[in-house]
Amino acid sequence: MANPNKDSSTVGLSVGEPRQVKRRTRRPRAEREAEILASARAVFSERGYGDAAVAEIATRSGVVEGTVYSYFETKRALLIAVMKLFFEELIMDTESGLAAVRGTENRLRFVIRRHLETFTSDLGLCRVVIREARPDVALYDEAILDLNRRYTGIALRVLEEGLAAGDLRSDIVPSVIRDLIYGGIEHAVWRFLFSDGELEIALLADQLADAVLGGILTQSAHATDTHQEDTVRRLERAVERLEAQVAG
Amino acid sequence: MANPNKDSSTVGLSVGEPRQVKRRTRRPRAEREAEILASARAVFSERGYGDAAVAEIATRSGVVEGTVYSYFETKRALLIAVMKLFFEELIMDTESGLAAVRGTENRLRFVIRRHLETFTSDLGLCRVVIREARPDVALYDEAILDLNRRYTGIALRVLEEGLAAGDLRSDIVPSVIRDLIYGGIEHAVWRFLFSDGELEIALLADQLADAVLGGILTQSAHATDTHQEDTVRRLERAVERLEAQVAG
DNA sequence: CTTTTTTATTGAGTCTTACTCAATAATAGG
DNA sequence: CCTATTATTGAGTAAGACTCAATAAAAAAG
User: Fold this and answer.
1) DSSP letters of B194-239?
2) Considering only CB atoms, which chain B residues are within 8 Å of A178?
3) What is the pLDDT of residue B230?
4) CB of B19 within 8 Å of any CB in chain A?
5) Rounded Cα gap, residues A88 and A150, in angstroms
6) Distance from C-alpha of A9 to C-alpha of A149, rounded to nearest angstrom
7) Of chain A residues 65-94, which have a CB less than 8 A from chain B?
8) Which residues of chain B have pLDDT under 70?
9) Residues 156 to 185 of B: which have CB under 8 A from any A CB?
10) Best interface-test mutation with A: which of B180, B233, B242 has the largest number of A CBs within 10 A?
11) What is d(CA B158, CA B164) in angstroms, rounded to the nearest whole number?
């Protein structure tokens, strides 16, 4: 609070030594933590988890490596904290946007598009999340698992509601569809990363949504428009009766 | 050739020292390379790439760390070699199985199921592949990229053929569908890894295939209206007949 | 069979990086 | 203004990837 941004300068101690100075700045815990978190996010995003040096995160926050460890137990704990922030933001954002959209189909299209946008706009961090959020089945990363669950739970709820409303085929399994959606987006984005083509978010979102919603078979007749089929058949029968009468 | 498997034993040098012996075994390059590769595959599979120590791989192959580096430039090169073998096997296997299946729908179902089987039967290695096959856009891992492309190319070809044969809706984008399939499987498997439920491969394969093939909307109206078009036309024809009769 | 050449194998050593800890100094409380 | 607290430091440890000059097993030459 006193002097937040007085950067490194020299403090002449009575001793005449040319000793490079040690000016420490002591800051409110919350502020320093936020700074470290921000640096960590940047470094993880740029270099990936493995190649991110804690020393660099420290330097960028204007502290020394040891300091970082007084705020976060391990490098991994730091990563988890970064992810937590990221997901919290993302969940809030997606949910508030979704609240304004009506109809199962529109809501699904919204979720797909929104996820694609996030993915491409914060690619570096997304890459880290995806890479690191699936470690060994070791449970120490339950934190990440839970965040992921909460986030993908958004689409899951939309699917379940759509199912209840009768907008979706009654034989689908919501969690499987959710996996298709998020997994499909992930793969599609990666493909674009390596091909040199431009990533048209809106187009890709539509293509993915079309496929998931409508299927890919030419006659997705299956159980789909059974109802439609029935009604037409009734009409046909009516006409047939008419024909019979006229003929007779 | 002379004495391949004479294991470590003592060789009394004229000197009376109790020095622990150094018995080296020199083996044909190909054999030793295969041994190292096998150990590497095991260790990567058990520990993941990051936690796999080259020293352990060496020990399991009965050599010292430096030896590994005389066969493979880097740890990463070793990983790539392991993956290469894995993919080569997988591609051969999948393609030969696929050759016996007819019809776009069946062929797609086969690919999905086959991939799911691989995934669950060699989970450790698959985890590593997925984690490591997407590093920075750095091209030094072009090798892996290419392997992946070749493998997922199998499904892509099935989709393209189906499109050409008119079995699939003409407005789908094969590469997007491929991403849905592989991405969806990946996510679905992961979910099972963390939930304690049993993974029913056949069931999951069907659920995924049903969703991709048939879509999820109750009235998959969209391009499905080709079918609707047909039915309406039937009605029109019926009415036309009637009109003709009445007129006549 | 003996000597020479080749090269696979070794193990000691370097370097980087996550993580620890006792010492230090900036701040808060009295 | 002095004292107690604790944030911050920087030197140090440990583990693991990677190097390299020396060594000895095998092959080639005599």
Assistant:
1) HS-S---HHHHHHHHHHHHHH-SBTT--TTTHHHHHHHHHHHHHHH
2) 187
3) 63
4) no
5) 9
6) 48
7) none
8) 1-23, 135-140, 218-233, 248
9) 159, 166-169, 171-173, 175-185
10) B180
11) 10
Q: Which chain A residues are closer than 8 Å to B244 by Cβ?
A: none
Say what the pLDDT of residue A242 is.
77
Q: What is the pLDDT of residues A70-106, one digit of tens each?
A: 999 999 999 999 999 999 999 999 999 999 999 999 9
Strand D nucleotides in reach of protein CB atoms, 7 A cut-off: 7-12, 15-21, 23-27
Contact of B238 with A236, CB cutoff 8 Å: yes
Enter the pTM of the model.
Answer: 0.80
Give residue B226's pLDDT: 56
State how far the Cα of B85 lies from the Cα of B83, in Å rounded to an integer.
Answer: 5
**Sign of the alpha-carbon dihedral angle for A98, A104, A108, A113:** negative
Query: CA quadruple A114, A118, A121, A126: dihedral positive or negative?
Result: negative
Half-sphere exposure of A179 (CA within 13 A, CB side): 24
Q: What share of chain A is helix, strand, coil (3-state, %, to 5)?
A: 70, 0, 30
Cα-based distances in Å from A140 to A52, A72, A135, A136? 21, 15, 10, 9
Q: How far is the CA of B21 from the C1' of D15 (A)?
A: 27
**CA-to-C1' span, B132 to D11 (A):** 35
- CA atom of A87 to C1′ atom of D11, Å: 38
Q: How far apart are CA B78 and CA B69, in angstroms?
A: 9
pLDDT score at B47: 93
Task: Please state whether strand D lies within 7 Å of residue B1 at its CB atom.
Answer: yes
